[in-house]
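Dear support,

I submitted the protein below through the web form. The confirmation email said the job was done, but the results page showed an empty box. After a refresh the structure appeared. I'm attaching both so you can tell me whether what I see now is the final result or a partial one.
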Amino acid sequence: MMSGEHAIALDRFGLGARPGDRVGGDPRGWVLAQLGRFEPTPAPLAAQPGRAQLVGMFRDYREQAGAARREKRQMAETMTPDDAAPDDPLKDVPRMLRKGLREAYAGATTARLLSALQTSAPFPERLVHFWANHFAVSVDKLPLIPLAGNYEFEAIRPHVLGRFTDLLTAAVLHPAMLLYLDQAQSIGPDSVLAQRAGRLAQRTGRKLGLNENLGREIMELHTLGARTGYSQADVTELARALTGWTVAGFAQGQLARLVGGAPGDGVFAAALHEPGARTIMGKRYGEDGGEQAKAVLADLARHPATARHIATKLARHFIADSPPESAVARIERAFLSSGGDLPTVYRALVASREAWLAGPGKFRSPWDWTVASLRATGLAQLPGRQAAAGLLQQLGQPIWRPGSPAGWGDTAADWAGPGALMARVEVAQQIAGRLGDAIDARALVAIVLPDAGVETRQAIARSESPALGLALMLSAPEFLRR
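What the results page shows now:
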């Protein structure tokens, strides 16, 4: 039976206790040792399609959807009032291809869940989820449906144990982020392409110009944080520095020839870049093509405001909704002294006394609760390819769909509403119903919920069936927190 710091190691720093988990006599050491055995590409992720294939799927959909629309227009123009409405031979093509995009999304969500359930290094796995939410993209945009999983797997996972500079650069310049925040269509006002913009716009109907979305979110969300001294002029200059960074395989016609690159790659196209030096937050950056934006990102990654912003978010995620100043300051110092070396930052987090204090802990998000529930019951996966995506949709936190670059909220106020709690009760009953009498919750509660109160233990002990007892455990107030 575990308790105290052992439970904190498994729940607060990990993804929830499993029967058979052994922390040993040094909970802090057990957490940190996981950094050495983290697998950036576990088996469930290795089987996922590559970026080029995913982009190809989206291009096929876009082309066939366009062809279907043109066919419908042509038929409408040639029909007379006496004509019967003909059956459209292309009506199912976009639907079929859209289904393929959704299946790619469902496969990636299932792989993500399997990785969380099977990992022997839950602390760095939790860090992957934290950083993916920090650098959030959302499948509300159609091109993101196949690419969101690839973004987490290729831009986030390989860099969670490296430098923040590298993580920031990989996230910002991944095709999913470039498409999500409209950077792929941002054109320098004085770029080579802009000189031809009039003729190109006439042929394609596409409006060319500077887009500041990515530059703004880099400063406000990814690095410095809101209201930390940068100006609108700084945002605009960063947007100009980022011009040229786009996605190969999405452009058409003359623009495609100017972009080049292998389909699905984030590439720098000099013809789209705004020439000239930039001055951002008082520092001058000379004209250096694609390296100009990378130089700005490197400086933003090391800025004191960034250290503060990241330290606060980490402390909020792992310690408390209102993180203690002493812990934030300790993590901040580690970030600054190491130049953003993330393992150094994590060690400062784990060393924080405040993180190991007994108490109600953090309220679990739907994702956290789902993973913890399945790990506790020993379920290796959910039935069906669509199950993971559908379950998180039911619980109110669809995977990779926060609907905003700010990502999902990370406090109890975001997740503890009455409707959300009722949804968890219903899912707990579904999980328990699937397991039937296979699990005795009275024995399990001592393993995965050692600090459960008397009322919770009595309710489970008096339940009419093992399934009901398990449902009560999974929806107990103590299990809703970590």
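Response: this is the final, complete result; the empty box was a page-load delay. The beta strands are 245-247, 266-268, 278-280, 283-285.
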